[in-house]
């Protein structure tokens, strides 16, 4: 079973992990600063940072899934930007199609379920279903960076439920890790400097990068268990 503890230990103790968390937190902090100043540079800069961090996430998943002795990517920002661009190009269609289908289906069912509480349940089911398609496509692509793998409909159909359940279990585990780490340090910063404060904001940015490494690691474990095991079972059955 995918373990958030393994993800935590291997990400935290990775080579030059702290330095990488600091370096990749800088552009995130810069975007927050631009947003607070209502700068026109916020949107183009945030787009670049999003691509960078998406490449960071994909690289973490790729490294763990392929048995590398490290989790975090190297310091080559341009390589990560390129990985983010390729990932968005590869996964953009499945994300767009699933999002459109989920929105359309939600609007269609809204005509039959006027009760808001009922629609909350249905929206959760609908978005969970299509999100599982997107996540399975992401995991399949991150394994070898092959676009065709992201659209292997047999793999998506066989593994999407397991992936969805695994992601659901991941969310509270990441929240618990954040509560253990972020809350005490944030409290200390609040006592000495107050909140909001640049030190607190930069610390939160570092925690965000750390969370990306945790998620990337956990998703790689989930890929190995939910997708690879399913593929092996299908091959044995055949």
Primary descriptors:
238 residues, mainly alpha, 0% strand, disordered C terminus
Task: Explain how this protein is built.
The relative contact order is 0.15. α1 (4-12) packs across α7 (198-237) and α3 (42-65) packs across α7 (198-237). The chain starts with a helix and ends with a helix. The model is unreliable at 233-238 (pLDDT under 50). It has 238 residues and is mainly alpha-helical. The chain has helices at residues 4-12, 17-36, 42-65, 77-110, 116-144, 153-192, 198-237. The longest helix has 40 residues, at 153-192. 82% of the residues lie in helices and 0% in strands. It has seven helices and no strands.
């Amino acid at each position: 079973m995918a373990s958030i503890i393994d993800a935590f230990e291997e990400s935290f103790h990775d080579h030059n992990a702290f330095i990488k968390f600091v370096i990749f937190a800088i552009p995130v902090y810069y975007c927050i600063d631009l947003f607070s100043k209502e700068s026109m540079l916020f949107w183009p800069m945030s787009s670049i940072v999003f691509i960078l961090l998406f490449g960071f996430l994909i690289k973490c998943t790729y490294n763990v899934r392929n048995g590398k002795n490290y989790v975090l990517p190297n310091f080559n920002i341009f390589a990560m930007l390129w990985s983010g661009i390729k990932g968005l190009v590869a996964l953009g269609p499945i994300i767009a199609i699933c999002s459109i289908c989920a929105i359309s289906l939600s609007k269609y069912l809204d005509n039959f379920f006027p009760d808001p509480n009922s629609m909350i349940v249905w929206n959760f089911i609908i978005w969970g279903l299509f999100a599982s398609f997107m996540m399975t496509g992401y995991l399949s692509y991150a394994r070898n960076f092959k676009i065709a793998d992201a659209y292997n409909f047999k793999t998506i159909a066989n593994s999407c439920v397991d992936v969805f359940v695994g992601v659901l279990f991941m969310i509270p585990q990441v929240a618990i890790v954040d509560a253990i780490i972020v809350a005490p340090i944030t409290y200390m910063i609040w006592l000495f400097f107050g909140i909001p404060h640049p030190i607190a904001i930069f610390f939160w940015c570092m925690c965000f990068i750390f969370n990306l490494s945790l998620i990337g690691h956990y998703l790689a474990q989930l890929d190995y268990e939910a997708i690879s095991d399913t593929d092996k079972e299908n091959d044995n059955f055949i």
